Amino acid sequence: MVLWVFGYGSLIWNPGFDFDEKLIGYIKDFKRVFDLACIDHRGTPEHPARTCTLEQSIGAICWGAAYCVKGGPEKEKLAMEYLERRECEYDSKTLVEFYTETDTSTPIVTRVIVFTSTPDKVSNKYYLGPAPLEEMARQIATATGPCGNNREYLFKLEKALYDIEHAEEYVIELANEVRKQLDLPEEVKTLLKPVVSRVLVKSQAHASSTRQRVFAS
To answer: How would you class 82 by CB atoms within 10 Å of its CB: exposed for 0-12, middle for 13-18, buried for 19 or more?
Structure first.
């Protein structure tokens, strides 16, 4: 018995747990969206960050990394305990099939765990939902938390997808809009600062044209 986990956000470049194998590939019928609030890493309850989650979309694919944990139940348990603490804003786990470029019709691994979120603002307090590109960019450009700022997360995701040779137009477009926000004069940024609702908590496609892109760190 082995554990497989699919990462499509920060897990791509920073898994943070002990694993035995890493594969680059994709899952089908899901797309990456920045619709989830983060209040304890890259944002705060008063000003949540926007991080990515998955949205079901027939025909879409989402590239990322699958991690395999071998070595018995104890090692798998440690990995899952770590992931559940880290991915605490995701309220669901979904089992998916994982594909690689070598065979696009047959999954190389099945029953891979991926952390997902319920797209419902009533039942899921962390779900922000979609917003216009400019509004999301303003929120990402200004949010910050104990682990750093929100824009760094986005720029690192942009670079990670570029590094695995599957840059994503949606991520590039959002990152470029954030860069435009950062170029604005300080007094204009203050006026454009997004108004976001407080998050209540119980306890308090490969783009070849981007090969010359310069990434923020």
So the answer is: middle
Residues labelled as active-site residues: 87
Q: How far apart are CA 110 and CA 42, in angstroms?
A: 32
Tell me the β-bridge partners of 51: 36
Q: Report d(CA 163, CA 159) in Å as an integer.
A: 6
Tell me which of 58-72, 91-105, 173-187 is least confident: 173-187
What does the longest C-alpha to C-alpha distance in the chain come to? 57
Distance CA 170, CA 190 (A): 26
99: left (phi over 0), alpha (psi -120 to 50) or beta: beta
pLDDT at 71: 86
pLDDT surpasses 80 at 187: no
Tokens, residue 117: 């979120």
| DSSP annotation string for 57-98 | EEEEEEEEEEEEE-S-HHHHHHHHHHHHHHTTT--EEEEEEE
Q: What is the pLDDT of residues 117-176, one digit of tens each?
A: 999 999 999 999 999 999 999 999 999 999 899 999 999 999 999 999 999 999 999 999
d(CA 213, CA 22): 26
Q: Which of 90, 215, 113 is nearest to 161 (CA)?
A: 215
- pLDDT tens digits, one per residue of 16-34: 999 999 999 999 999 999 9
